Amino acid sequence: MSPAALPITPGDAPPPLRLPEPPLLFRARAERLEALASGHAAGDWLRFLARLARGQDRAVRAVPSGVMPRPGGDGPPLAQAAARRDPAWRAMLAAVLAAARGGALPAAASAAVARLEAASPDALEALADDVLAGAPADLAAAPFVGAALQAHLTRLAAALEPATPAPAGAACPVCGGAPVASVVLGDARVRYVVCGLCSAEWHVPRAQCPVCREAGGLSYLEVEGGPRGVAAEACDHCHAYLKVFDLAEAHSADAVADDAATLVLDLLTGERGFLRAGANPLAPGGERA
Amino acid sequence: MNLSRRQFLKLTTSGIGATSLGALGFAPDRVLADVRNFKLASTTQTRNTCPYCSVGCGILMYGLGDRSKNARLRLVHIEGDPDHPVNRGTLCPKGASLLDFVNSPHRLKFPEYRAPGSSEWQRVTWEWALDRIARLMKDDRDKNFIAKNAAGVPVNRWTSVGMLAASASSNESGYLTHKVFRAMGMTALDNQARV
């Protein structure tokens, strides 16, 4: 009788890249946001973000795929697809806006939806460029535009071959976007940094700054009495932080949903003088340092 | 898009208006109240090597305490290092209980001496301990050293004393251990005292 195969072979390196599964991702995120919203200090906002995620879910199912970008050239394979976008993303924006309308909205949010629905394609492309550059000026429009871009690029990333990515520094090796947060897997215990834009996850060793790759100056800041398994990985070398969600303790955490729901950790970490390296398209914010 | 050129953002309570939460018209009052009511706890994660056996598994040690305040860290958790090529996050039962070994009240932190016939341990200095070990080794070697065997062939053996060395030693200290004690003629030498 041969022994049963172990799920992990000691010595096997973790896969360098995990690509998203859009049909599962956005639905699970919407459910996570709804679960986080109950009893939360910003519950209305999280329920609003859940509606955006429902809209993203509908968009990746209903909007026909555009042209798949051809691989080639240097740099991340989807960098060009982010910079010169297929118009399919604007159809996704329409789905996101329709989903946002499906519940009560504050006046400013209603106005932003109306503004985006009336905007010309050129104006929308300019907004998208602004969102992709980080720190968008129109913070009321940015969550809708960011959600549509995220749905668009996530679907493109899902169609890629999971090859070993070329290192891209702290940026996403698939689309060149900014990370939103890290997750530590519950079983394998390895850490993946999650792209806010295309939802690809790339492996970075634990206890190492995912921004500057220094290991000696990290502190893990947690809210005392706050949710378990959530920390800001703050680096004394680059003075930036990225949140890390330990899925062994924060069982069903989603990088984007839980990042938004832990805004208090951002504010407390910001008060200590650390800058936010994470970019959450659904919850943009912060001032230029 | 490159993070090295992208500017990081400052996110503080005074700038809550500069978030989409504020810009969309959601009320931030309760979030700001949470900020006043909660404070941060700081932990660290440090890589190390398990001290037990020659496999040399990587471990991650979680310490509670503020690195920036130079406070003494309290070790609160140890797990296998998932990025270490030797063990990929796994640990044997002995390694998995390292935390209790580190925090044990019975942990030996300095040399102790129990005199022949005595039941009491007393704390001694390293100098005293090393001098005494050297003295006893010299006396034993002078008494029991075998320069030649029965056939008159030079063998230079010292068989009455053995040496257990540390399995977590580096290659270099393992090499030196062998050189020093083999040069004295010692034959019972184990540099992998894992059990």
What are the salient characteristics of this protein?
heterodimer; A: 289 residues; alpha+beta; FdhE-like fold; 2 domains; eight-stranded mixed β-sheet; 9 strands; B: 195 residues; N-terminal domain of TfIIb; three-stranded antiparallel β-sheet; 28% helix
Description:
The complex is a heterodimer of chains A (289) and B (195). Chain A has 289 residues and is an alpha+beta fold. Chain A has helices at 22-37, 43-62, 79-83, 88-100, 107-118, 121-132, 142-158, 255-261, 263-271; strands at residues 17-18, 179-184, 191-195, 201-203, 218-223, 230-235, 240-246, 275-276, 287-288. Chain A has two domains: 18-158, Alpha-Beta Complex (FdhE-like fold), CATH 3.90.1670; 179-276, no CATH class. In chain A, 38% of the residues lie in helices and 13% in strands. In chain A, strands 1, 2, 3, 4, 5, 6, 7 and 8 form an eight-stranded mixed beta sheet that branches. In chain A, helix 2 (43-62) runs antiparallel to helix 4 (88-100). The longest helix of chain A is centred in the first third of the chain and has 20 residues, at 43-62. The model of chain A has no long low-confidence stretch (mean pLDDT 92). Chain B contains six helices and nine strands, in the order E-H-H-E-E-E-H-H-E-E-H-E-E-H-E. Chain B has helices spanning 20-23, 29-37, 93-96, 98-103, 126-144, 171-183; strands at 9-10, 40-49, 58-64, 74-80, 112-113, 122-123, 146-148, 154-164, 186-190. In chain B, a hairpin with an 8-residue loop joins strand 5 and strand 6. Chain B is elongated. The model of chain B has no long low-confidence stretch (mean pLDDT 89). Classes of the chains: A alpha+beta (289), B alpha+beta (195).
